[in-house]
């Protein structure tokens, strides 16, 4: 938590502006816009010190919560349905529910081109693990194909000057044990791949457990927090 500004009246406005800027640096979204306006009001003298302090303190709790996701302003997250859920809490990303890694690979050139043109602040591109390569088939070659797709995507991302990040699939309970075992096997291969290629790994399987394939909003929020922690 940023400390409340204090000091003599002659320096109070300067301290308030610094206080607000520290809050702005922690957060994204609407609250960031509101605080930016407050800072401008302070610098222009349109609000009294007391008004600004009161309003800043009223949204400080929101700023702290959103601060857990602040790094996601520099990340683009893509994948299948889990990516759709996580992107409810992240400003940049896309997801294609029900699709395997081959779809992600085919879409990646356009994604990287869009990032270069429209979102130059993006430094990390996050590939979310998906069950869709293995959920409907016990063919082991589907795991091999997923890893091959990730290898190509990592090459494309690094070639674009961005840092690749990969996640495992979350720990799933309450589903067909054979299907869950295939997802676990995929996750192990993702870990091996990340270690071999020195790709940043967010091991969601060891960080979040859900009953069924899809967690609720709070679960996606927690997943987003883990991803944000990896983006540095």
Q: What do you see in this structure?
A:
It is a single chain. The chain is built from 8 helices and 7 strands; from the N terminus they run H-H-H-E-H-E-H-E-H-E-E-H-E-E-H. The chain is α/β, with parallel strands linked by helices.
In short:
With 232 residues, this protein is of the alpha/beta class. The protein contains 8 helices and 7 strands.
Task: Count every helix, treating DSSP H or I runs of 4 or more residues as helices.
Answer: 8
The share of residues in extended strands comes to: 5-15%
Low-confidence stretches: 1-5
Relevant CATH superfamily of the largest domain: SGNH hydrolase
Q: How many angstroms does the end-to-end distance come to?
A: 20 Å
Helix content: 55-70%
Sheet bearing the most strands, described? 5 strands, parallel
* Radius of gyration over C-alpha positions, nearest whole angstrom: 21 Å
Number of strands: 7
Instruction: Note the overall shape.
Output: elongated
Overall domain count: 2
The side-by-side strand order for the widest beta sheet comes to 2-1-3-4-6
């Amino acid at each position: 938590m940023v400390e409340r500004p204090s000091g003599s009246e002659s320096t109070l406005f300067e301290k308030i502006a610094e206080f607000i800027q520290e809050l702005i640096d922690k957060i994204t979204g609407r609250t960031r816009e509101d605080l930016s306006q407050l800072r401008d009001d302070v610098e222009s003298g349109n609000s009294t010190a007391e008004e600004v302090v009161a309003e800043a303190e009223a949204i400080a709790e929101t700023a702290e919560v959103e601060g857990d996701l602040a790094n996601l302003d520099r990340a683009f997250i893509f994948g299948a349905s889990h990516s759709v859920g996580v992107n409810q809490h992240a400003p940049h990303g896309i997801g294609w529910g029900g699709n395997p890694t081959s779809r992600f690979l085919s879409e990646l050139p356009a994604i990287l081109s869009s990032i270069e043109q429209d979102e130059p602040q993006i430094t990390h591109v996050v590939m979310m693990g998906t069950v869709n390569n293995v959920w409907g088939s016990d063919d082991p070659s589907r795991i091999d194909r997923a890893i091959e797709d990730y290898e190509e995507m990592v090459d494309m991302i690094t070639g674009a000057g961005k840092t690749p990040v990969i996640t495992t699939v979350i720990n799933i309970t309450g589903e067909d044990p054979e299907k869950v075992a295939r997802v676990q096997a995929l996750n192990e291969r993702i870990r091996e791949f990340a270690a071999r290629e020195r790709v940043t790994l967010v091991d969601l399987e060891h960080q979040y457990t859900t009953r069924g394939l899809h967690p609720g909003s709070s679960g996606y929020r927690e997943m987003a927090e883990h991803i944000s922690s990896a983006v540095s």
